[in-house]
Amino acid sequence: MSRRKIRVRQLYWILGLTLIAIVLTPLVRLLWHPPTTVQTPTKEPPLPWSITFDEAGRPSVFGLVLDSSTVADVLQHLGKGGGQWAILERPGNPPVLEAYYPDFIVGRIEGKLILRFSGDPEALSREFTRHGRAEPTASGARKVEVGPESLSRLSRLPLTLITFLPKAQIDEAILRERYGSPAHQWLEEETKVQHYLYPERGIHILRTERGRTVIEYTTPERLRRHLSIERH
């Protein structure tokens, strides 16, 4: 074998070893000094059964605080689009402001959301009259739809009731798993609607035989005033 062939072969070896060194050096560096990874904590969305209380004992649901969050807070939290706002007058009751979100999604749970605001009946009555003719509702109330100008004038009204209607059918086992055992439970014989009451958390759940569910959230004090617990 000539010296020239030996030199060419040695040159190939040198080039090969050099390339291997170039490739392996970063890998070795990574093995000895792995990069610092920043772990971002995943925060659980405010799901229907995730109820917390502030220092004043007011429940927080879906990121909204009952008897504290206002119309302005809700518009900022949920956005100004997607909600339908109306003032409702029911016979024998002061008028209330309601917001209806037909396509409400929290986490992966879909449903309908209804928010009620009460207080300052004079201001609500003025806005009700300002919009002229009212439309009847299925519940026997009269309503007028309101827009941004009215909401601006009513921006400080507090949130007093949250109603969530899950899209999926929910059986009793799931309700008990998520909300626990109710303090009071009763069945309406005529309608076959099952009631589950959690007075300490301000929760009232209604469930039909087919699993259609309505979940109401309010303050414990307000729930005790509106429902006669003793007779159940």
Automatic annotation (TrEMBL):
The chain crosses the membrane at residues 12-32. Keywords: Membrane, Transmembrane, Transmembrane helix. This is DUF4340 domain-containing protein. It comes from the Bacteria. It comes from Tepidiphilus baoligensis.
